[in-house]
Amino acid sequence: MNLQAEERKIPMLDLRLEYERMKEDIDRAISKCLAHQSWIFGPEVRELEEKAGAYLGAAHCVGTSSGTEALVLALRALAIKRGREYFEKEDEIITTPFTFTATGDAILRSGATPVFIDIDPATYNLDAARLKRYLEAGPGRAVGILPVHLYGCPCDMKEIMALARRFDLFVVEDVAQAFGAAWNGRRLGTIGDAGAFSFFPSKNLGGFGDGGMLATGDAQISAIARMLIKHGGRDKYNVEHVGYNARLDTLQAAVVLSKLGHIEELNGRRRAIAALYSDALSQVAEIDPPAAPSGGLHVYNQYTIRVRGISAQGAGAIGAGALSGLRQTGLRDGPREDLQGHLRQRGVDTMVYYPVPLHKMKVFYGRCAVPYMLGESEQAVKEVLSLPIEPFMREEDVLHVARLVSGFFSS
Ligand SMILES: Cc1ncc(COP(=O)(O)O)c(C=O)c1O
């Protein structure tokens, strides 16, 4: 490998690349906001709600201050629809423990109890077969399911929706990482009762700060969410519910709106980069590239590999080059950390999404239910590694990262 390649720095995400490509649109949109100065519920918010709704195929979209708030709003709206301000502790909402904290936290904030069911090890998503087993055997306290389309990979929505209908449960989709992804031709976030999107800057449709959106086909959920985002009333002096200040701000709406026009290209480029990685890594036995479920359209918000192989304690099968890397980094936890150290030393950033499953976090102690072992999630937290991906990442950089990964196992 030449010196230049050795010195190349590849960050996990360089948002400047996306901005440079869309600078004209984004700058124009921001200038419009500067001219009208309508910062709260400015025209861009409604325009984004309408255009995103048309793109997704959702009858109603409500801009929110974050993806987290969109989840809380969806759940609160479902509780209010049933005539209650919050869910009761006895009400169970089933989700995955292998997700960002916000998913489980939103369930707690809605008053319900999160029930953690293990993932499918191939997709890292809530395992529909385990979900079925729980519902068939369970105490019947479940009121809803909260599937997370992790990394942009669609859950098995056919099975989940069939179970929801059979057991009379609502479905709120966590689509924070999956704007534009689809299942059997339908955009994710529009298949269940509601979908919660995030416009956090690192997301595949990201703003310049926090933002999110709730999508729903249910006019009542939408109307309640519209009240909740502005303190819980139709207007300031007729407050009916315990609400929030959870509006999407105009400036974020303007930025997201500019990017929305390019979403097909952005997601297409992500898929092309993922294909490049998967092809280049296909011969590396110690690695599982991400699965792309048939019937689903993945958007690769993250490109996440599973680093299998032997533990660091019995590192006999790891090549000499990798071992010298280990000595320098001092990381001996496992092959995933070894590989991460190897890449870091060579200027390549990676991330672990997520190192701790939700049921192991203090906030959920005594507040969640774990009916069965969560072995797949506990294994995944030790093995997953997300590689750099962004729509305008250069092909040679993708191949460079892939070469470093395969080199680690063969050196
Ligand atoms: C799976 C998942 N759910 C929920 C969220 C919360 O979104 P936000 O950061 O916009 O509140 C995120 C992103 O951070 C996420 O990745």
Tell me the number of strands: 13
CATH class of the largest domain: Alpha Beta
CATH architecture of the largest domain: 3-Layer(aba) Sandwich
Average residue pLDDT:
93
Stated plainly, the CATH topology of the largest domain is called Aspartate Aminotransferase, domain 2
What number of domains? 2
Textual characterization of the structure:
The protein is α/β, with parallel strands linked by helices and 411 residues long. The chain folds into two domains: 17-260, Aspartate Aminotransferase, domain 2, CATH 3.40.640.10; 263-410, Aspartate Aminotransferase, domain 1 (Alpha-Beta Complex), CATH 3.90.1150.10. It contains 14 helices and 13 strands. The strands form three sheets. Strands 1-9-8-5-4-2-3 form a seven-stranded mixed sheet, with helices on both faces. Helix 2 crosses helix 9 and helix 10 packs parallel to helix 14 (395-410). The longest helix is centred in the N-terminal third of the chain and has 22 residues, at 15-36. The chain is globular, with a radius of gyration of 22 Å. The two termini are 12 Å apart. Residues 1-5 and 311-332 have low confidence and may be disordered. The structure holds pyridoxal-5'-phosphate (PLP). Pyridoxal-5'-phosphate binds next to helix 4 and helix 5. The site of pyridoxal-5'-phosphate (PLP) has 15 residues, from helix 4 and helix 5.
